[in-house]
Amino acid sequence: MSALLQVKDLKRHYEVHIPEGLFGRKASLKAVDGVSFAIEKGRTLGLVGESGCGKSTTAKLVLGLIPATAGTVEFAGTRVTARHDAQWRAMRRRMQMIYQDPLGALDRRLPVITQIAEPFEIHHPEMPAAERTERSALLMESVGLRPDMAMRYPHELSGGQRQRVVIARALALDPDLLVCDEPVSALDVSIQAQVLNLLDDLRERTGFAALFISHDLKVVRQMSDQVAVMYLGRIVESGLPEEVFRHPQHPYTKALVSAIPTPARRGKRERIVLEGDPPSPVDVPSGCSFHTRCPIAQASCRTVAPQLIESGGHAVACHLVNAGAAPAVQAAE
Amino acid sequence: MTIDTTPGLEPASPAHASGSVFTSKSRVGAFFEAWPPLVLIALFWIGLIAVVVVGAKWIAPYDFMALDLRARLIPPVFMGGSWLHPLGTDELGRDVLSRLIVSIRISMVIAFLSTLIAAIVGVSLGFLAAYFRGRVEQVILMLIDAQAAMPFMIIALAVLAFLGSSLFLFTVLMGFYGWERIARISRGLAISANERGYATAVRDLGATPFRIYSRHILPNIASTLIVSLTLNFPEVILLESGLSFLGLGVQPPMTSLGNMVGYGRDYIQSAPWIMLAPSAAIVVTTLSISILGDWMRDKFDPTLD
Q1: Which residues of A touch B211 (CB under 8 A)?
Q2: So what CATH class is A5-94+175-247?
Q3: What is the 3-state composition of chain A as percent helix, strand, coil, each rounded to the nearest 5?
Q4: d(Cα B281, Cα B271) in Å, to the nearest integer?
Q5: Which has the closest alpha carbon to B195: B214, B212, B219?
Q6: Which of B203, B113, B171, B12 is nearest to A92 (CA)?
């Protein structure tokens, strides 16, 4: 079975200069370090992790906005490259992105209807202007924007309305894949819910696949068919949202899940508070990159990097979990 | 803005009754807020200049080259002359008003075309540098630095001295004045615009670089460019005047503003009107363009309402 999007061992390293000694030294910052996943048609993969774990870099790599250091991205059987040629531009019809900052993503000098119509102008230059306007108006309606907002400028709209404009523009050409990079993190909580519901509705109606990136576990849980938890450029746990959030296996996921506020004040769950900050992606710890903050780290964690091992649709990259897993399941793979 | 609390003074609008925080402005007030008087004067002057440029042939009361040696050095009306020659005559009895009209036409056309050339060259090179970066950018920056390092007046003198002065050559030469500033500004603005979300977002939609630069980046940086161009325009007028004053620009019997000032300086004591009229035209025109440019920058920015 071939998935719509197939990502294999994707890496992105940045050469950085560290001011150390007389001339400093060169080092590589491993923003994304060997990420593999697949998204099937019409499904949503949620990617969670704290700031700086490589979520947004992964999004850019998937869309071919920046070149990968290693690894491949295949979209509907075609390699996605970062060479911005005609083929790359034509591929944009089928893969679109929603940005974290909707005001920044919109041209402040054009009325929103013009910006929503822009994908038609780019990819269907033969389309008559009347049809373009008509389809843009339909798009505005489908994302819940009033017709009288058409001639407004982005700065005259609220944050939620701007994000709706961005969504309308991204969906103009019925893409197969939509990459949402923290689409609601800049919005108020009440607006967040509206925009998420809108995305959910649109997905049901048009059936696009999505890569949904957020640091908000609740949001990811609501939106995704599958989640992957990232830590320092690697996926440490993935599986169904219910599985991962109900029964987290990796100690990092456990800590994340325990930090979700719950209505029950004296909950049964104990909170796991991680010590310190995540290590710098320039000096990734040897072995398991989480062992410096892991409450249950062992000697082997410091030397051997754990593999992401799947058992029953739930994959975890942790020596302790995988050693305890039933050997029969591993043998079956 | 006046806060009107007495409903009797203005026609009571529903906005007042509902306790709205908006107060309706008087029409005259609103008009002058949108069009400040200074801008109106500048616009009027530019309009007048435009009419003069287009209709110089029909407006000029005399042929600008026609001599009338019996009517030499007649002062203008307000200095005791007659309405026959409203701005007086020069040392050869040529009508100053007619000469001024033709001079304005020549000087404006040269300045306009030159600024246009400078804008096209500058913006194109600036965008090319911003788009390609790397070696292309280095070469363009080197050209910019080379141009900026040489006093333009000396280049102009050298070119005109070696190649002679034709109106076409002179216009093209003036077009090379100031392009390096525009190129530098547009390169910097384009690079920073590229880092902004909107340019990246449009690129992610699949837009070609040409579309990104012409449809999105250019309008977004236009306000700054226009201010830079409105600075350039008067400078070209002054440069043209300077070169013509030195006798290297527009050659007699053709006339231009600088040319008139240059030849009028011999009579600065006995007949100051010969050089005062073109000087005033230079000053008022350059000032008007600067005022308009400033106003246009604010107008072009929809976020500055």
Answers
A1: 122
A2: alpha beta
A3: 35, 20, 40
A4: 17
A5: B212
A6: B203
Tell me if B205 sits within 8 A of A118, measured CB to CB: yes
Domain ranges of chain B: 50-300
The answer to whether the CB of B189 falls within 8 A of the CB of B228 is: no
Determine, for residues A101 and B211 on separate chains, whether the beta-carbon distance falls below 8 Å.
Answer: no
Q: Which amino acid is at B143?
A: L
**Please, what are the averages of pLDDT over each run of 10 residues along chain A (333 residues)?**
82 84 80 88 89 86 88 87 86 88 87 90 89 90 88 88 90 90 85 88 88 88 90 89 87 85 65 78 83 83 84 83 53 36
CA A238 to chain centre: 13
Q: Contact, A136 vs A111, CB < 8 A?
A: no
Tell me the pairing of strands A314-316 and A234-239.
Answer: antiparallel
Q: Which residue of A63, A89, A106 to mutate against B (max B Cβ within 10 Å)?
A: A89
> Global pTM?
0.77
Distinct helix (H) and strand (E) counts, chain B: 13, 0
Q: Which CATH class is domain B50-300?
A: mainly alpha
* B268 close to B292: Cβ distance less than 8 angstroms: no
b vs e for A305-333, b when ≥16 Cβ sit within 10 Å of the residue's Cβ?
bbebbbbeebbbbbbbbbeebeeeeeeee
Interchain contact B200–A (C-beta under 8 A): yes
Query: Is the ipTM, as predicted for this complex, more than 0.95?
Result: no
Spatial strand order in the sheet of A314-316: A95-98, A177-181, A209-213, A44-48, A226-231, A234-239, A314-316, A309-311
Whether A106 sits inside 8 A of B202 (CB atoms) is no
Q: In what order do the strands lie in the sheet with A78-79?
A: A25-39, A5-18, A70-75, A78-79
